[in-house]
Amino acid sequence: MANTIRVNPNAARTGIIAAVxxxxxxxxxxxxxxxxxxxxxGVKYSSFSGTDLGASYGEGLNVFFPWERMIVYDVRTKTAxxxxxxxxxxxxxxxxxxxxxxxxxxxxxxxxxTTFGPEYYERLIQPEIRSAAREVVGRYTPEELYSSRRTELxxxxxxxxxxxxxxxxxxxxxxxxxxxxxxxxIRRAIETKLEEEQRVQQxxxxxxxxxxxxxxxxxxxxxxxxxxxxATRELAESDNAxxxxxxxxxxxxxxxxxxx
Length: 260
What we know:
There is one protein chain. The chain contains 7 helices and 10 strands. It is α+β, with helices and mostly antiparallel strands. It has 4 domains: 31-74; 78-182, Tetrahydropterin Synthase, Chain A, CATH 3.30.479.30; 183-218; 221-257, no CATH class.
């Protein structure tokens, strides 16, 4: 007669739980960790499912499986300077240094990663700055770029670059023109012209001051009384005026009343 083997249900359940715990421990032992510092954010990539588009990972300790990896981005505001060479409206070569402040949008970091990757500045922002600068500079003369219209040029470049990247998961905070380099002969000519304009303004100011001084000195009581007598005589001789002399004013001039 064959022996019957009885399995204790409690023992079986305990064994299953132990096996599950063992598997979880093995998996946990193989997990990877990544600690992100202040100003950093991460994008998680899986060998099976690709980039996790649902979230970006912030500061602190992040845990992921061995088949996953964390791509870390610096999400603080950054500054880059671009040396630009462009042609002015009259075909002269203009050099300038353009500084740009920018930052990635943390909430859209996975999309920035899949579209441009960590080199997003070189692939997105840098080409737009160069293109905008060359197009805008081509509408100005060297004199305008060197002095009066530099702010306007700066704003135009910033507006164009901002519009170009606004749907590409990054923000442009500011664009500044640090320096404008002109051909030596053009620069000297502009500086000479500016110096001449300043001299002319100084001469005009000196002449105006001297004119005021002479006029002030010439307004003596005798001169003013003479002018008053002349004005009174002309008024008395006017055909349209009926003149009545009542007496004399405090300055010795007659008082004349009357009209048409």
